[in-house]
Specification:
The chain is mainly alpha-helical. It has one domain (3-56). It contains four helices and no strands. Keywords: Membrane, Transmembrane, Transmembrane helix. The chain crosses the membrane at residues 28-46.
């Protein structure tokens, strides 16, 4: 598969975990930016997700 095809696949897959957590889909594209992706993964791991907030109420 060409690099362009791989890039397109990644762009389609990355928003999915973010959507499941309850955040807007475009935030998933932060995974594609070097160094920002590390901070974003840390943020996802240790923040309260909007989906969890809805279940607690």
């Amino acid at each position: 598969m060409s690099p362009k095809g791989t890039r397109g696949m990644t762009t389609n897959i990355e928003p999915m975990p973010v959507l499941r957590a309850g955040y807007p889909g475009p935030r998933g594209l932060l995974i594609l930016i070097p160094l920002v992706n590390l901070a974003f993964i840390y943020f996802l791991a240790f923040s309260r997700w909007p989906v969890e907030e809805g279940r607690r109420e």
